[in-house]
Amino acid sequence: MQPIIKKENILFDVDAKDKADMIEQMVEVFDKEGYLSDKEQFHKDVLAREEVFSTYIGFGIGIPHGKSSGAIDAGLCVAKPKNPVVWADDEKVDFIIMIAVSDEGKGELHLQLLSKLSRLMMHEDFRNELKNGSKEEVYETLIKNLEVE
User: What does the pLDDT look like over 110-148, one tens digit per residue?
Assistant: First the structure.
């Protein structure tokens, strides 16, 4: 079982031409780090979720997520694009946290992570720690604040 967040899942200066490219690169990280059993299925599920309703939450932050049969373990992937990426209705993001959760028996974890992240993002200090921190600081901030059962 993988930890929810690993330093390898934190990407800085990502060169992404658009939202779809950003999502694809983050899915690649989940796959490379062993969180996925079916990369294509997980990617499809994340994109399908985006079609239902954008995961832009304000403050220049997107939280794409997928509860998917393509995921083995729950995890987070964090990305800071080199340049802001248009996410929804001309809203640009400069910080993205993708959530991966298996659709088998972990529904509560998916909701816990999403709920906790959404609440934390309301706090300017938390957002600033993530947006302005080094990879190590971002990792430590998430570990410290994302205690989930």
Answer: 678 888 998 999 999 999 999 999 999 999 999 999 875
Residue whose C-alpha is closest to residue 76's, from 112, 40, 104, 41: 112
Question: Could you write out the DSSP letters of every residue in 6-24?
Answer: -GGGEEEEE--SSHHHHHH
**pTM of the predicted model, to two decimals?**
0.93
Domain 7-143: give its CATH code: 3.40.930.10
d(CA 41, CA 70): 5
Residues with Cβ within 8 Å of 27's Cβ and at least 6 positions away in sequence, in order, are: 36, 39, 42, 43, 46, 98
Helix axis angle, 39-52 to 19-32, nearest 10°: 140
Q: What are phi and psi of 105, to 5 degrees?
A: 75, 10
**CA–CA distance, 56 with 63 (Å, rounded to integer):** 6
- Do the bridges between strand 61-62 and strand 91-93 make them parallel or antiparallel, or are there none, so unpaired? unpaired
**Angstrom distance (rounded) from CA 64 to CA 38:** 18
